[in-house]
Amino acid sequence: MPTLSRDEGISSGMLWKWITRYLEFGEEGFEPARQYRGNPFAALHTSKNLSEIDRLRLENAKQKIEIERLKKGYTVKGVGAKKEFVTLSEMNSKSSKD
């Protein structure tokens, strides 16, 4: 095996991992473990067709994140590249000065 790995330019550990995976799972063992699905919250702002249950799950997850932010004492101001995190005390002091 060291000769094969050297000839192919890969480490013997990687070759052993591939052999083990093939023996355990066959050719399916070489499929990617998980597909990157992108930002799930993007579906809320695009025209993607979501089932009602998927839309509600995404909305619920988004609200849980917002609750955790508020518990930690900050919120998000702005959107996209202009997004900034503001502590609630900063936000309240700015409001009282206006």
Provide a short characterization of the protein structure:
The chain has 98 residues and is mainly α.
How would you characterize the overall build of this protein?
Helix content is 52%, strand content 8%. The chain has a two-stranded antiparallel sheet. It is elongated and about 70 Å long. With 98 residues, it is mostly helical. The termini are far apart. The model has no long low-confidence stretch (mean pLDDT 77). It has a domain at 40-97.
Reconstruct the topology from this structure:
Elements: H1 2-8, H2 12-25, H3 52-71, E1 74-77, E2 84-87, H4 88-97
Antiparallel strand pairs: 1-2
Defining traits:
4 helices, 8% strand, 2 strands, two-stranded antiparallel ribbon, mainly alpha, 52% helix, elongated, 98 residues, single chain
State mean pLDDT (0 to 100 scale). Answer: 77
Low-confidence stretches: none
Percent helix: 40-55%
Enumerate the strands of the largest sheet in spatial order, edge to edge or round the barrel: 1-2
Strand % is 5-15%
In whole angstroms, the N-to-C terminal distance is 74 Å
Counted beta strands: 2
Largest sheet: 2 strands, antiparallel
Query: Tally the helices: what do you get?
Result: 4
Radius of gyration: 24 Å
* Overall spatial form: elongated
- Summing up helix and strand content along with how strands pair, one would put the structural category as mainly alpha
Order of helices and strands: HHHEEH
